[in-house]
Fold each of these.
Amino acid sequence: MQAPDTDNRYVRIAVMFLLSLTVFAGACATAIHWLAPVHRTMDLIIPPAATVLFGGLIVALIRRPRWVIGIARIALAAGALALAAPAWLYTLQATLTPGVQLIDLLPPVSSLFVVFLVMLMIFIPGRLAFFAAALCWALVALPVLAYLLLHPLELWSPRGSDLMMAYGPVSILVVVLLPVQRGLASKIRRLASERQRMEVMLHRDPLTGVQSRLLGERMLREALAEAAPAGVIMLDLDRFKSINDTYGHPVGDRVLQAVASGCKELLRENECISRWGGEEFLVIVPNVDAPGLQQVAERLRSAIARLPVAPVRQVTASFGTTLIRPGDTLDTVLQRADQALYRAKELGGNRVEAGPVAGAGSTHSSG
């Protein structure tokens, strides 16, 4: 199935999108700080450095898409440093410098911190995400919250209240919701796995491993809808009931498995075999004419006759073939193949009988 590849592609797209947004935000922050009337050293260093770093990560992701998780974690580590550095520097500066307020110094990055925590939850596995979130909260949010609690005038200002909510209840709520997010992700994975298992059950015969009748019918309908020539082979094991009666059903199951495996190995990738029911199988051969279809059936008949399935002395099968005609339906094709198979049975089995070509009689080959 293609689910894993599809999931990886979505992850790469998401990481590329986030990196691109970060580069854009860093470039905008760089321009704003350079154009501002007051230049602060930290504001002039971090945004351009982050822009260059995340731009390099985009290039790395394009050239090495398999590194997507590692690139995402490097981006998270860089983001944590970029958020923690101004939080500590400006908090210390506001604490040690009379007349300087943190609400005037700290860049507007509180909303980015909440987004950062969400990304942390996505890309850090299991319980490690708790420790990573707690560490980042202590590095980024805790010094700001401690400062605001010690400076009530700044705390009750509009900017102070916004910082308190973003770094306090909102951040904690994001971390608390981590188990819910993990549970939902696990539930989605289980549902996807169950759906995949059900699809396999619907499309594969559980005993022989070849396609199920349901998928065989669908493939035959698709062949009927196409204009390209195609043929159908119906095969039925000879005297299979006596094999079950003589040697038991476990031996009969091994015979079915050996026949299905032997036929599947001889068929090309675009030729499909499905278990039609009991000891009967249906083969669809695209892009074939009457002689080619006859050769495919004869090759399968000969291979089955040589199969060693102990303790059965020999396994043989009878074959009926027919080409798909313009205007055919599922019933008409199967009816002709079944009639040809019936003739092969009447003639002693272990042989191939062809259904009538339009305007001609039947042909056959003996085993």
Amino acid sequence: MKRIILIFLCTIGLSANAQVKTLTLKDALIYALENKADAKKAKLEIENSEYQIQEIRSRALPQITGNGNLTYNPILQTSVIDGASFGQPGTSIQATFGQKWTSGAGISLTQALFDQAVFTGLRAAKSTREFYQINSQLTEEQVIERVANNYYSVYVQRERLILLDSNYVNTSKVRDIVKGQFDNGLAKKIDLDRIVVKMSNIDTERQQIKNQITLQENALKFYMGMPIETQIILPKEEFEVVPAALTEVPNVENRTEYLLLKKQEELLVFKKKSVQAEYYPTLSLTAGYNYIGQGPEFPWFEKPSSGVYWSDYSGIGLNLKVPIFTGFGTRSRVRQADVSIRSLQEDIKDTKLSLDLDYRNAMADIDNNLVTINNQRENMHLAKEILSDTKNNYLQGLASLTDLLDAEDESLSAQNNYTRAVLNYKIAEVSLIKSKGELKTLIK
């Protein structure tokens, strides 16, 4: 009895875990942007950029430090001085300076008054934040593209399985007809065997497609950041083919990939200026206050009556550092930074050409796939008519079994070609939307 209850509870638990979720493309994309690790990490990079900016700003703020020390001198250093200073010319006097114990505490402040590197870093802070924001947007677009393509691929695999299931059912009906003819001596055993072999082949292909569907669905869920055990349903209306509207050639300078490279160029310029800042002098303000105690005894908590004396001192100053010669090290780093900028500028030019090429190729793919879809749709309808006529002719003894099997194969092939054409169109459609910089419209 306990075992039955345990099995029942486990069954309930498995049913609860096996959630079924209806996914439109928009739902899938929104889910991915909220749950996929890539999108989350991109947002964390934006958060981290704020801390990097705060780090840069800290260099322009006062730097305050506290210090303390405690020193015991077991043997004090003896110095030899001229006795003339003490009215004893011609003699040398050994004198011991210092105390056995010395302790001090203080606080110091340093404030940069002029540091070109700090000023350059502060100007670069805003660009750093914008760089990570653009990078996050690019990551989101990559997630959208990847999920959309896999979403359509899952649908196509499922359509292939539906076609095979339908083909299996139709072939089963033909098998029953042939078997009836064979039982009545109107058909040969080889004809029945051919039907059985074909059904076996169809069933094998069905199993392969089912495995491909599982793999494709798992890939989709992974790219979405969705638990693998979740069952998903894809609405059929998501795969309707609507001819894309012709538009003017988009401005590639608005594409995220281009904007990211331009922002990277801006950061490299700031990096070059930061190195050039080493040519400039630096000026800083320093201030300090200290309290020191000395005496023959452990100085803490002691008073002059114990021979321990405490006193304070402070100082305020300016530190000026003027670079004169650095062995051409700074010049070399400036030139390296300049080469990095020029190299990136070549990447920017190449990226502009690539983005323009993507748009034109996407438009060509859209046009070609529309033609292919129309052709395959007509071919599919024609193949169905041929199959229907061949089946009727076979039943009337006007067509051979080979003609019937060939007609079934051609009909299945035509339907698969049509489904594949729809997939190619949908992928081309995603590429076109991407080339126009409008992938985010898929979640609106």
Amino acid sequence: MNTEPIEKIGFLLHDAQRLLRKRFDANAAQYGLSSAQWRLMVRVVKEPGIAQARLAELLEIEPISVSRLVDRMAEAGWVERRADDNDRRVRMVFPTARSRGVFTEVKGMAHQIFDEALTGLSLDQRHAFVHGLETIIANLSETDGASLGEAQLKEGTPA
């Protein structure tokens, strides 16, 4: 059995992610956003008032790194921090009008990059590719003791 394609999967996933990030960073530079800032903005726009500590968990980066990232984004006018009304130690992060204003535009630019990356794949191949990635993630993730795939099945969401 030829295992070479399987042996390359880690390198292929890494290279694809690196190239997507590089292309995104080049295109998002016109907005003054890095891919890390975009990931944070997506979370904040979708969940206004999210706690900084929760952002660190979701983005899988250290809390101090999130704090610095939020500092830079606040200085640039993308987000604002507010103290939690119930616990002043907790810092909540909110999108500004600026971030809400360009969110759809940057999201569209990201979709163009994905379309470019998937050029040459049929719609069925694209769906199979996404399903394969979701399966890999489900196989390697845990959510409250259950695999992500099991959690998605319980919620009625296809894995």
Amino acid sequence: MIQAGDKLPQGTLYEYFESEQGGCSIGPNALDVQALAHGKKLVIFGLPGAFTPTCSAKHVPGYIEHYDALRSKGVDEIWCVSVNDAFVMGAWARDQHTDGKVRMMGDGSAAFTRALGLEQDLSARGMGVRSQRYAMVVEDGVVKALFVEAPGKFEVSAAEAVLQTL
């Protein structure tokens, strides 16, 4: 599992764009994690799945609510990473009204999640391989702090908890 002090692994995440912007076309766009993280302070949070109860009712809304406070602590971007495809993440972004606050990143094959060592097998519950619930603070591609939830918990990866550590 990735640890504080480690560099983010090589990886590609997919983001759905509603309009052409910043060299990205409408629809899903493949984005290089290292290039996106270069020179930025990020909060990246991962969760088991789009449109799931805790994720939709608490996790994403908390980061939207605390966006300004996180920015005031020097955070350049907030990323939500889930083992869903970019189309699902785009629909979830519209549903959660994340535009301009939280980048909704799809990791459909769980390749990035596995590279982090933060996958979990929820096949017994019909969900396949998913992400554990976590949050991390990353500066210029290096993990400065990592918060991984115990199974079934939602405490240390909440926006409020991350904000207290910044």
